[in-house]
Amino acid sequence: MPFSLTRENPVRRPLLVGNWKMNKTASEAVSIIRELLKLFPANPYPEVVVAPPFTALESVRTVLGSSSIVSLGAQNLHAEPQGAFTGEISGPMLRDLGCRYVIIGHSERRTLFGEHDADIRKKLGAALAHGLWPILCVGESLKEREAGKTASIVTTQVQAGLAELAAEELATIAIAYEPVWAIGTGRAATTEQAVEVHQAIRRCLHSTWDKSVADATRILYGGSVTPQNAGSLLAAEGIDGALVGGACLKPDSFAMIVAASKQPSAH
Ligand code: PGA
């Protein structure tokens, strides 16, 4: 499987991920993907991922066919490869459906489904073990931000989510900084706020692992990204893409966000 982010070539190709959450049936998903494929350029520079619900993965994969424009992602996985875990989905199942990416530790999983850093670390290990590329989500609550704890909360989540992994094991990992107060609220972080936290995460990657990890790891911003704010956020130094919720359900909005991302000349 080709992977461009080698240590020799640490250009961070923008990564735009649509997190559909619990929205759209399989047949609705097919219409959205058909529409999206019409709107995207034949060969967009950013890497584009759609993460529909589990129930739509198969039909979305069929519409994508052998297209290399859009990759498939899942929104969650169980840490075990199989077993008596009613209602859960494993890494090998996702790989078999053609998933390349998996979102891990989204704040909705943390707050609504009780996932803690230790669970998230296990899921991340399972993703890597089964050849899935994890997108580790981190972010502070409004209370934590107001208490001046943003950098420490976020870097603790990064260190816990990636604990004890060797630098070379981090090659396929992306991190999504998603302030909890910005998710689904229409109140995105300002570009300055996002850049500041991205810098803190990159410094943490440098100090915990090394410079090559800090230079090569893609750090995305998520939380109320829209076609209106995407240009400023995605142009900023150190913001390597976006994790998009609400706006990704509208093909024209998602296509505009993808179009707003950095182009090769910007590197
Ligand atoms: P939002 O969601 O874009 O609707 O704020 C982002 C996310 O939860 O990943």
Write up what this structure looks like:
The chain has helices spanning about 25-40, 55-65, 90-95, 105-110, 115-130, 140-145, 150-160, 190-210, 210-215, 225-235, 250-260, and strands at about 15-20, 45-50, 70-75, 100-105, 135-140, 175, 220, 240-245. With about 270 residues, it is an alpha/beta fold. An 8-stranded parallel beta barrel has the order 1-2-3-4-5-6-7-8, surrounded by 6 helices. The longest helix is centred in the C-terminal third of the chain and has 18 residues, at about 190-210. The protein is globular and about 45 Å long. Residues about 1-10 have low confidence and may be disordered. It binds 2-phosphoglycolic acid. 2-phosphoglycolic acid binds near residues 223 and 247.
Produce the secondary structure layout.
Blueprint: E1 15-19, H1 26-39, E2 47-51, H2 54-64, E3 70-74, H3 91-96, E4 101-104, H4 107-112, H5 117-129, E5 133-138, H6 142-146, H7 150-161, E6 174-177, H8 191-208, H9 211-216, E7 218-222, H10 227-235, E8 241-244, H11 251-259
Parallel strand pairs: 1-2, 1-8, 2-3, 3-4, 4-5, 5-6, 6-7, 7-8
